[in-house]
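queue> pop job 88
queue> type: inverse folding (structure -> sequence)
queue> payload:
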């Protein structure tokens, strides 16, 4: 007999628990309130404190609850290490217990806890509950950096850039930053650049620009922030052209935020080639559902400096976005066909696209469709439909719809 094929059962997907806040999590897990939780055994306190201090969603954490559990009763090395992570990831205040917290962190730091070293430095830098001491903070940050702690490396680099607790040295800061993996280093370079440029000297502007360009190269998929700084601040034209070249070179992997920043800069130029490139970028963004890009394309249809071929491409992009379910694109096409902006006017197409957007609960589209139907010639069915759409728009909070209904009622 032939051997029957073995049925492979699909691996069930893990259930991802989501909570609005820590209180919702606490109740769902059956954990007691903080006063009772501090009396639990140390292993149980560590379990709950880990959730309160290190849950990925910052909005769900409760640092006060978590720290209270770690500082209550008998403690341990694991508790101190978790305390250090909590300090690095959350706001904190230990009040009169700060000296004891620092002693615990220092003791565990001597045993090789990297996060304890960084946390000790952070407490001295923040000056929360103790006098701020930049020199001590830098000493501990640097120690954390030496042993490979990423937050220590970041803090050391920023201190060197600002000359905080140590002489200013941008080159040294970059050497420390080079120890981080590319994506994290890119974010750090952007933050370093933001602080370097504050002096506004020619030398620092050049150093800042170099950091931002390197950030964009290191992580093209997250180039929005450095691109925004480079293209919207007072960097020279060659630097801005390099930033644009980096955005172009990223191709399909480009950060949409960087693409939008560049498109908005090009849009403001009088050069027809620049405006045409901006339109192409907005087309790409519109097909991804970017509502601001759709607005730009809608405005582009009314520009006299764009030829018919370009406007046809715009209409094609908006149509594709509308067919993909983006209400903003449907509304833009409805307006274009209603007024004949960049296309031949067509009340039939205008009504169709406006209704498409209105059915997706766009209050403005509902108002425009309602008024359009009411203004059609002597059709009682259209009058009824028009009033219904105005009522939906008014319910959605659109003020012009409420005003139109009041006027209709007074007639």
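queue> result:
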């Amino acid at each position: 007999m032939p051997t029957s094929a073995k049925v492979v059962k699909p691996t069930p997907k893990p259930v991802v628990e989501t909570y609005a806040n820590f209180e919702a999590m606490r109740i769902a897990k059956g954990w007691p309130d903080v006063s009772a939780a501090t009396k639990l055994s140390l292993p149980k306190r560590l379990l709950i404190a880990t959730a309160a201090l290190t849950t990925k969603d910052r909005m769900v954490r409760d640092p006060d609850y978590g720290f209270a559990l770690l500082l209550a009763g008998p403690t341990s090395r694991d508790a101190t290490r978790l305390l250090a992570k909590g300090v690095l990831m959350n706001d904190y205040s230990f009040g009169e217990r700060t000296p004891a917290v620092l002693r615990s962190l220092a003791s565990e730091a001597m045993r090789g806890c990297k996060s304890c070293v960084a946390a000790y430095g952070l407490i001295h830098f923040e000056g929360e509950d103790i006098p701020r001491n930049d020199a001590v903070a830098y000493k501990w940050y640097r120690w954390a950096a030496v042993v490979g702690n990423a937050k220590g490396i970041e803090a050391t680099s920023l201190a060197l850039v600002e000359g905080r607790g140590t002489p200013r040295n941008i080159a040294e800061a970059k050497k420390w930053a080079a120890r981080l993996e590319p994506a994290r280093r890119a974010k750090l370079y952007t933050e370093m650049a933001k602080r370097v440029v504050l002096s506004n000297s020619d030398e620092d502007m050049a150093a800042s620009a170099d950091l931002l360009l390197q950030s964009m190269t290191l992580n093209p998929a997250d180039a929005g922030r450095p691109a925004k700084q480079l293209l919207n601040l007072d960097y020279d034209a060659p630097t801005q052209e390099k930033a644009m070249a980096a955005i172009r070179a990223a191709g399909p992997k480009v950060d949409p935020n960087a693409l939008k920043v560049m498109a908005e800069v090009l849009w403001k130029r009088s050069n027809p080639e620049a405006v045409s490139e901006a339109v192409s970028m907005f087309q790409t963004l519109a097909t991804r559902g970017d509502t601001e890009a759709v607005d730009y394309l809608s405005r582009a249809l009314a520009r006299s400096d764009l030829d018919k071929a370009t406007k046809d491409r715009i209409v094609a992009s908006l149509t594709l976005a509308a067919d993909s379910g983006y209400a903003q694109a449907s509304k833009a096409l409805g307006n274009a066909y209603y007024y004949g902006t960049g296309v031949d006017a067509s009340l039939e197409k205008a009504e169709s696209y406006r209704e498409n957007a209105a059915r997706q609960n766009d209050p403005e589209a509902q108002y425009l469709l309602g008024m359009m139907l009411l203004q059609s010639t002597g059709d009682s069915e259209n009058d009824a439909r028009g009033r219904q759409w105005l009522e939906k728009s008014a319910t959605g909070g659109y003020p012009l719809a409420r005003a139109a209904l009041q006027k209709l009622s007074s007639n």
